[in-house]
Amino acid sequence: MAKGKSLMLGIMVGGVVGAVTTLLTTPSSGKEFRNKVKDQSQEWMELLENLKLDGLRLKNQIAATSKEGVSLIKDLTHEMKSSIVEWKESVEPHQKNIHQYLEQIESSLKDLEEKVNASKK
Question: Could you state, in order of their start, the residue ranges of all structural domains in the chain?
Answer without folding.
Answer: 27-120
